[in-house]
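Retro notes - structure team

What went well: the batch runner handled both jobs without manual restarts.
What didn't: labels got mixed up in the shared folder, which is why I'm recording both outputs here explicitly, each with its sequence directly above its tokens.

Job 1
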Amino acid sequence: MAKVELKQPIVDEIKSMFDGAQSAVVAEYLGITVEQDTRLRKELRENGVQYKVFKNTLIKRAAEGTDFAQLDPNLAGPTALAVSKTDATAPARILAKYAKDIECLNLKAGVVEGTYYDQAGIQAIATIPGREELISKLLGSLQSPITNLARVLNQIAEKGGEGAAEAAPAAEETPAEA
């Protein structure tokens, strides 16, 4: 069996990872301990991110003709590939979080929703909160005015409507004087 035939299933696996993916990040991992790698992989898996180490030539071959081909210049040396189909910022966010504690883990570059980002750009993407957190912040800001209105109405009701009763006669006098 030829070497190409042996490597084709791996290329197909990478292609399936790229198929429908929102983002892919490549990172250098040389020197990471088993314990660190286990914790990293566990968190990536919990967030729906596929993380695997492949040969650079196989990643290049699988990325041909896709947006992820933009990663080619960064595919040198030991490379780990993190791909997400659900949360565009998850691979960058999680890898950057671990890179703070693990000196040998470095983000090289990434493609997020079709746009290439170099190392500085992918670090910036890593600061964007996840989808769940953004939705909860949006709902909190939408709920805030309603909560404030309810609080004001509750205070008026607790006073027995005194504030509303005092305001009503003043409103009645103004039209009568005119």
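Job 2
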Amino acid sequence: MKKFFGFLTSNASLVVVSAAILAFIWPVLTSWVSGSTQTVILGLIMLTMGLTLTPADLKILVSRPLDIAIGALAQYTLMPLIAWTLTRCFGLSPALAIGIVLVGCCPGGVSSNIMSYLCRGDVAFSVGMTTVSTLISPVVTPLLVLLLVGETVDVDAWGMFKSILIVTLLPVSLGFGLRSWCSKIKGFDSVMAVMPSLSVVCLALIVGGVVSTVHDSLMAGGFGLFLLTFAVVLCHNSLGYLLGFLLGTVLKFSPAKRKTLSIEVGMQNAGLATNLSSQFFMAVHPLAVVPCAISCVWHSISGTLLASLFNKLEKK
């Protein structure tokens, strides 16, 4: 069982991509992952994140406030602005523009900590950034979305605030509380070992559910729609990695911190963006969820590739 769970965790990209392909071929497999079910699954992902937090992790927020503030500010300025600029450069429809802007306005991805570990980055810095960006997301994410696309589409900022609060802050707090309360119970370490693989499975289900939902729209739009959306997602993600690394270089961060800042800025919680687009925009703009779904898959792949690239460059 440990080997199986380890396989899921170390091959997260493969699992998510496989789920997307299977859902596209047989949409009925994951068509049940929608609405409240999708929200519950996303809540489970955030619960696993909360279970990995310890009091020592929270002390990082106090001991390194400047580093973490710089990282969170970079994430919530660079990624939304890059997303908004790309919608103009590519001339995206309102629906696709909503999707990519949503991805840019969401907090850091929960798997970014794993990627920082794999590339020998500053894991404590990564955990601190992810924690802070997640904690402030109920306020910051709706405001940024309202600011960037509020003139073209109706944005229910208050509804988004409540939704993000329910699927991020509450599960993370619950997970942290359970970790503090149950850490000394026999067998708890074995349960904790399963959490990363559970997060991977949940993310795969969300991606599969979204692909099932937009299957007909993708078929109608053809390969051109997929190619255009993927190109935007690729540019958004890659520019985030690049500008995050360059910012760390300008600020004279250590190599480990530069790598972590690059990953934290570039990787977004696309699962949350998927959930928000499904709840608040899909009824009027069905294609809004497509960039979010593609980002879910691509960020897992690109994060792994970037970590491997950093390791190869370090050896050279």
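One thing worth noting from job 2: The CA atoms of residues 77 and 100 lie 14 Å apart.
We'll revisit the folder naming next retro.
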